[in-house]
Design a protein that fits this description.
The complex is a heterodimer of chains A (225) and B (248). Chain A is an all-alpha fold. Helices cover 74% and strands 2% of the residues of chain A. Chain A is built from eight helices and two strands. The radius of gyration of chain A is 20 Å and the shape is globular. The longest helix of chain B is centred in the last third of the chain and has 16 residues. Chain B is of the alpha+beta class. In chain B, strand 1 and strand 2 form a beta hairpin. In chain B, strands 2-1-5-3-4 form a five-stranded mixed beta sheet. Chain B has a two-stranded antiparallel ribbon with strand order 6-7. Chain B contains nine helices and seven strands. Chain B is elongated. The chains are: A mainly alpha (225), B alpha+beta (248). Chains A and B meet through helix 1, helix 3 and helix 7 of A and helix 7, helix 8 and helix 9 of B.
Chain lengths: 225, 248
């Protein structure tokens, strides 16, 4: 892999491909989470979560790809940051970055690190317990007290206001990361043409609405439990 | 107007440099930035000090030699101009102006504000050309049909003067706008398409070997480019590179 990724353009392309995959994953995660606020006491959310959590294709094929995509995106992000810092040994005494670029584009590493911290929290909250239940304890039933457990677990997590606050802050960082990342991924794969303007508008909507949606869902469960 | 200048002084490529303060007085707002530097240098020579070394040649925005980083921006605060085209009317009486060389590992400082940009030359030599038979039966270029759209886009890309402002302004010291423009100006024309795959692979390999950083699409290069070279050229280079890589 290191051979293929020796080229700066190949690295850009690889970053963009992992970004596309993660943005698609984010969208499907959002769509499933939205069902948790449906007025059917989590019935749809439970069904979808159980399907996602027990389907062999998702668990044994897509989940490893997702983990690889997440790890690759972060590792490559750090590698690029180090390489790029090394490309300018002496920094400018005065640099007016705001004159020619957005704050988001200049701080992807910091917004990315905030998202990484959130993913660790999110994994501790949901993913590690899930892996423990299924792969260590061997319980694939998805049941607790005679009913599917996913909706109840979700509600429990959003009782604590500190956790809700942390999630909201993380989603703001996610929005900032996506505000540059969405367009940037398309530019990296060479898509800069007559559709770019429309794509940028769509990207801004995606970058704001998806994290905002996650915030609304977190607040909904916090105030409706 | 009276100004305070904070200028990077460095004796030679091996010495450690530092910012040094100077005062200049009675600067006309109609002067170009380089004329203001000439006034400073005259002042320094008259007092027996070493004048500030800076690159310049045509002084009309064509040669790409002038290369100062002024108040945190390549070629200063104006848009679509090189340092030689920057006028003192962009500044106010009493201003402090910070002047630094273009900074990048691939652009080492030679002296004061003069940097070595021969890495750009080596990238050009790696593929920034077309091979033409000059034995006497060369085909008339006007006989080859080229669409107006392609000709315009190639001309826009060819407007790059290789000054290095893109590298200087990029937070990653990436040279992709320069290389993208050079790849594009040939790739868009039939004469350049014959060697297009080798060209992009070789130029990008040389760019990477020179130690330029990786583009993260901030778009700062496009804003600071004195010739308005568009980011579309980087996207085109990416397409050309991926296509050439797949062909093997």
């Amino acid at each position: 892999m290191s051979g293929i990724l020796n080229s700066s353009i190949a690295r850009k392309f690889a970053m963009a491909l992992s970004a596309f995959f993660l943005m698609f994953f984010l969208l499907q995660h959002f769509v499933i989470n939205v069902t948790s606020i449906f007025p059917n006491n989590g019935a749809t959310f439970n069904k979808l979560s159980h399907f996602m959590g027990t389907n062999a294709l998702i668990q044994y094929a897509l989940q490893p790809v997702l983990i690889f995509g997440v790890v690759f995106h972060f590792v490559m992000g750090f590698v690029l940051e180090i390489k790029n810092n090394n490309a300018r040994a002496i920094k400018y005494a005065k640099n007016n970055g705001a004159a020619n670029s957005t704050w988001m584009s200049r701080n992807m590493i910091w917004t990315g690190m905030a998202i990484l911290a959130f993913i660790v929290l999110h994994f501790i909250d949901f993913w590690f317990p899930e892996i423990n239940t299924k792969f260590i304890q061997g319980d694939w039933s998805g049941m607790h007290d005679g009913q599917l457990r996913y909706f109840h677990e979700l509600q429990e997590k959003f009782v604590n206001p500190a956790r809700v606050g942390a999630y909201i802050v993380a989603f703001v960082f996610l929005a900032l990361h996506l505000l540059h990342g969405f367009d940037s991924a398309f530019q990296s794969v060479g898509a800069n043409n007559k559709y770019t303007k429309g794509l940028k508008t769509f990207g801004k909507l995606y970058a704001i609405l998806i994290p905002l949606g996650f915030i609304v869902i977190a607040l909904f469960h916090h105030f409706n439990h | 107007m009276n100004l305070t200048l904070k200028i990077w002084r460095q004796k030679d490529s091996k010495s450690k440099g530092q910012m040094v303060d100077y005062k200049v007085t009675d600067i006309s707002e109609h002067m170009s930035f380089l004329e203001m530097m000439d006034v400073l240098n005259e002042q320094l020579v008259n007092t027996g000090e070493e004048p500030v070394a800076f690159d310049h040649d045509c002084r009309e925005g064509i040669c790409g030699m002038c290369s100062m980083y002024i108040n945190g921006e390549a070629h200063g605060p104006d848009r679509g101009v090189t340092t030689c085209q920057l006028h003192m009317r962009m500044f106010k009486d009493g201003d402090t102006i910070t002047i630094e060389p273009f900074r990048a590992k691939a652009f080492p400082v030679i002296k004061d504000l003069v940097v070595d940009r021969s890495s750009f030359e080596r990238i050009q030599q790696a593929g920034g050309f077309i091979s033409v038979n000059t034995s006497g039966n060369t085909q008339d270029a006007n006989a080859i049909p080229i669409s107006k759209h392609a000709a315009d886009e190639a001309m826009d890309a060819a407007a790059c003067i290789g000054c290095g402002a893109c590298v200087a302004t990029c937070k990653n010291s990436s040279a992709m706008l320069f290389v993208g423009a050079k790849v594009s100006q040939y790739a868009l024309l039939p004469q350049g398409q014959v060697e297009a795959a080798d060209r992009v692979l070789n130029m990008v390999a040389q760019m990477d070997a020179e130690g330029f950083g990786n583009c993260t699409n901030t778009g700062a290069c496009e804003i600071e480019c004195p010739k308005g070279i568009s980011l579309e050229n980087i996207a085109r280079m990416n397409r050309e590179y991926l296509s050439a890589s797949l062909k093997g």
